[in-house]
């Protein structure tokens, strides 16, 4: 007979495998800060976003063409609303990053780790596990140490914009997990509608913010186009597809904590490629982010694996199961299962 630890091992492996794509999303999002800073100025945020999203939509449309045809009006409307929220996140975060320090931006955006479980707990009227709160607190402390290099300062307009992006990230994750109209909808189709709706938001704002997208595209070098394709394919298409699947399969709190390692990876890329240096407290902060994330991942268990239905036990000939139960006769298969449990 298998012991409890042996039975729990496959579930733990499934949880780890399910979490790895989300951690990879945190890695590519962490790298996106450096990519955006090399590609964007305050005057080119919106046209860059237009080009970034338009580069994704045609190939994704080919992959999602069949499931897109099955979407009903309620599903189109729900996915489009999520896309509008997503567009707001990108606008606030992109403008915030170019108008504030990476220190403040990294710390403020990580507040999603706390905002999401608090909001989820309030909506579902359930208590947050203490172990999860402790893990999230350790991760936040780690982010604070990790980003202390240039010190904190009075919040600026850029800081408030990034804070707005953190709030919208929480709204987006919760709306995605609680939308009844979108349950069971193909993930590729849902991703395409969201990205298309966000592109509409950027296109509407484009005439009022910076040069036309095609003029910006014409001025870019091959290296800049390479950065754009990286942002489009990995930091946009891959990242939001994985996030959406994860939110629909597990809790938003767990997703937010795993994605909370983003500032750590931003620091890693900054050191490796951007010439940044970390102090001893910052290195300690990076370790706390990793330990806090792993502790939180274990505190919020993965959803149980789907149970395959057992073969139905043949009923007495000529008598329907409902008739047996209505007459007070126990279901033979249920009785057998009860004896086996004893």
TrEMBL record:
Transmembrane segments: 20-39, 45-64, 76-95, 101-119, 189-210, 222-242, 254-272
Keyword Nucleus in record: no
InterPro entries (alphabetical): Diverse_Substrate_Transporter (IPR051258), EamA_dom (IPR000620), EmrE-like (IPR037185)
Region of interest: Disordered: 301-342
Family from the record: Belongs to the EamA transporter family.
Name assigned to this protein: DMT family transporter
Recorded topology in the membrane: Multi-pass membrane protein
Organism: Kitasatospora nipponensis
Keywords for the protein's UniProt record, in alphabetical order: Cell membrane, Membrane, Transmembrane, Transmembrane helix
Pfam families referenced in this protein's UniProt entry, alphabetically: EamA
Subcellular location: Cell membrane
RNA-binding listed as a keyword: no
UniProt biased composition (Pro residues): 301-314
Top-rank lineage group of the source organism: Bacteria
Residues covered by the EamA domain: 18-146, 157-293
